Amino acid sequence: MKTKILDVRDLNKHNLEQSIVYDEAEAEAKVNAALRKIDEAAEILAGGGLVAFPTETVYGLGANAMDRTAVVKIFEAKGRPGDNPLIVHIARASNIGELTPVLTPVIIRLIDNFWPGPLTIVLKKKPDVPDVTTGGLDTVAIRMPDDPVALELINKAGCPIAAPSANISGRPSPTRGEHVVTDLEGKVDAILIGSDCRIGIESTVLDMTGDVPTILRPGIITAENIEAVIGGKVAMDPALNQRKDPSGEEGENFTPKAPGMKYTHYAPKAEMTIIEGQIDRVKKEIERLKGLNERLGLKVGVILFEEKEFIEAAHDFFARLRDLDSEGVDLILAGALSEQDGVGFAVMNRMLKSAGYKIAKV
Ligand code: TXA
Ligand code: MG
Fold first, then answer.
1. I need a labelling partner for 337 at 20 to 30 A (CA). Which of 36, 63, 272, 328 fits?
2. Which residues form ligand 1's pocket by a CB distance below 6 Å?
3. Which residues surround ligand 2, an ion (CB under 5 A)?
4. What residue ranges do the domains of the chain occupy?
5. What is the mean pLDDT of residues 332-341?
6. pTM for the full model?
7. Left (φ > 0), alpha (ψ -120 to 50) or beta: where does 31 sit?
8. Coil, strand, or helix at residue 355?
């Protein structure tokens, strides 16, 4: 399949301000050219095709969520297991009624506070939402992304857009246009290249179908942020506490409530281990292991974020994994982040999965 690569970075006014614009007319022409490319992509979606597009979290691979045949193509292109449900993206909060019959005051408060933005809400689904979209579940995950290209695209397509992250299943989520091109060129109809993703990890998935709101996947919107808005307790899926010893063998196995959370995710090609402990000891241990393994002939990559720079870590983590893979490292040594912080916890969730839950304490 020939994939159309459509560069729409000029839509974002912020980008325009960064490059020199000599007159108003030129700026307008640039924006209009980007809008025409988005029109073209929206037509592809409306016609049952696949389009990858930027969001503020990670790039998504979209199809018409209400069109079974189109949604099946997402699973084929990504090599994604069929029981892993997709998030359905909308461009206006009022469109939520097409997907779910449930709209309580608490849900409205969540939407008012966090949409558009990186919060996905799991609710009972309407019968019209196809089973392929929800992996056979009777619930649907819904989110309104905060990215001008994504919103324009969904609006113009005129239908809710099912979109998982735009990577080959099991690979790190894509946070730059070039990551999507590497994974999906030749497998999808079009790729919209926008800005690098502002946040860098996927949305928080919040299950609102039970008695207590429960976080199934942590993200930049933390339990505390949600509690502050709804004025009540938020639970964590116990599966988020999964750990294994450094051999990768011993540890409890949980079954997560979000089907996608059980798969090996974000796996770099290199073997990866996390080192956890007091920062100076972690640094020392990483240096020791790096030296030792390099003397044995291995190429070693290190991921060590500044202490407490959680937002930076979220922004850079997936891109770092992909960069180290391109450099051809055999082993990745990563310093653990503090899980006391909600964002640190969210990045650690991805780091643990990348490392197959292998963590060594020092
Ligand atoms: O930030 C994001 O959420 C990105 C961008 C593209 O919007 N999307 C994304 O989608 O991360 P994906 O498919 O890679 O992850 C969706 C997660 C999976 O863990 C899936 O199992 C869970 O959400 N999920 C989807 N629908 C669900 C449902 N009805 N019940 C429980 N979990 C669900
Ligand atoms: Mg994903």
1. 328
2. 55, 57-58, 60, 84-87, 118, 120, 122, 134, 137, 139-141, 143, 145, 163-165, 202-203, 205, 216-217, 258-261
3. 165
4. 4-244, 271-361
5. 96
6. 0.94
7. alpha
8. coil
